[in-house]
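Aggregate trends can hide what the representation actually does to any particular protein. This step matters because it turns folding into a mapping between discrete strings. For completeness, the protein is quoted in full, as a sequence line and a line of structure tokens:
=====
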Amino acid sequence: MAAHRSGPETSRQLIAARPVRDHPAGLRGASFTERIVAELAPHVPPLPCCRAALIEGMTLAGEGGSPVTTRLVSARAALAVLHADSIPASVERLATARRHRYRVTVRASAAAGTAPDAPAGGSSAPAAPPVAPVPSANLCCSRSRLRGVFLACGSLSRGDGPPQLELLVGSGAAASRVVDDLERLDILSATLSRRGRPVVAVRSAAGVATLLSSIGAHLGRLEFESGRVVREVRSGVNRRLNAETANLRRTVSAALSQLEAIDRLERDRSRWERLPPALREAAVLRRRRPRDSLEALAAAARCSRPAMAGRLHRLVAIGGVPEEG
């Protein structure tokens, strides 16, 4: 389906039409990804090479040579970065079958390179076109490039769930570039395929936290870490509850087996009289205290816990099988 173009919008028009949800006060009901994008979008890298790397990262999300994103706030961020280098650009809204997409396009200089404030006679010399910066091989540009990728197409689950960060890029070459930048930060990743498009995924909590700090989402990392702590505490409590429930179930089952064996022995007086005194004492204690633990029974019998456990085990073994007459 051919994309419908509603026309370019200047950065001034986009900023004037900024919705309320782009502001921190309007992000209370937003998703975790939207809050991170809102944190990253207002910041323009101070170095020209890092600004170029950020635009390159946003370009990796599209299929052409221009940044393409479904987030208007990310398109505004790209405009701010380009205008910081005096590069004229505009945003085109592309109406697709599923949702609107925004493409940032670099425009040619006004009046074919003539200065905008030139007199009507055109006597002044043509202004030199701005020189576009290029990314460097430094680590700062790798971080800026990853920031641009996340602004354009990144998604992240909340910290109280399993860590899952995904970057939906436009091609296999773009996925390789993203994986190389992640490896420079010692972040393990995997490349998947979804609906014919490559997806770079980070599944480790340490990798997600490192990436958030590297791209400048410090508030997002704090929220992610707090959610991870809640998840780990909840998991620890569930494990402890499950273990205690299993121990209690085994204790109750053992006590029932012991009481049943004692009943059989008490009904058969000959077998009861042949029991050693220590076993009869353990049987009487268990009958009087059916809910006590082994520690309590051992303290009442003035013996060790293993000794009491052995006596009860012998009672179950003797009383569990009826004697042949």
